[in-house]
Amino acid sequence: MESGCLQKRLLAMMGIESLLCDPSIDHIAMTIDPEYLRGTIVAIHSVLKHGSCPENVFHFIASDSSLDNANDLTRIVKSAFPYLSFKVYIFQENLVRNLISSSIRQALDNPLNYARSYLADILEACIEREIYLDSDTIVVDDIQKLWSINFTGSKTIGAAEYCHANFAKYFISEFLSDP
Q1: What is the DSSP string of 99-161?
Q2: CB-CB contact of 74 with 48 (8 Å)
C-alpha cells in the first residue's frame, strides 16, 4: 500500500471532522434524495471499486423539504458503506424555488438539482476543491486521476462531454431566449 494511502487511511480512522479540511483527501459532492438513492449508492460503489485509495470524503447534499428523509438516507448510506467518511448538508430550497422555469424534464424542476451551484456556500469554507458527481454517474477509473489534475486559475469547472444532446427539448423556449 502506498504511504499516501496509508496516511489517508489513518486520518479516516480519526473521524470525518479531521478529514473535512484536508486538501490531500479527495472530496466528492453529490446530492442525495429518496428518488435517486439507488443511483447514488451505485455511484459511490463505482468510486470505491475503481479507487486506488478509497479514503475519500463524500459530501451529500439533501433537501430541507425532506429533513426526516435526510436521517433515513444517512442510515442507509452507513449500512451500505459502514467505513465511508461522509457528511450530510442541508440545502435550503427557497434559494432557487422561485428561479426555476418549468421544463418538460421533471428532474430539472426539482430545486435540489441546482444545489451543485451553491457548493461553495454549503460546504465548509476550508474545502477549496471538490468533484461533483450526479447520482446517475458511473465512475470507471480511479477518481484520484481526476483529483490529481493540477488546475490553475481561481475557479475551474469541468464536465464530461454529453454527446448528441439536444438541449432544446429539455427547456421551454422562454428559458433559451435572451431576455
Answers
A1: GPPP-SSGGGG-GGGGGGGGHHHHS-TT----EE--TT----S-HHHHHT----SS-------
A2: no
Confidence at residue 103, expressed as pLDDT on a 0 to 100 scale: 64
Which of the two residues, 128 and 133, has the higher pLDDT score? Answer: 133
Residue 175 has pLDDT above 60, yes or no: no
Q: Is-contact 8 54, C-beta < 8 A?
A: no
Q: Which three cell numbers stand for residue 100?
A: 426555476
* Residue type at 24 in one-letter notation: S
Sign of the C-alpha dihedral computed for residues 79, 84, 87 and 88 taken in this order: negative
67-80 and 37-50 helices, crossing angle to 10°: 30
- The pairing of strands 85-91 and 57-63 is parallel
pLDDT reading at 70 higher than 60: yes
CB atoms within 10 A of CB 30: 24
Indicate the burial class of 82 (C-beta count within 10 angstroms; 0-12, 13-18, 19 or more): exposed
% of residues, the chain, pLDDT over 70: 70
CB 87 within 8 A of CB 179: no
Task: Say what the pTM is.
Answer: 0.76
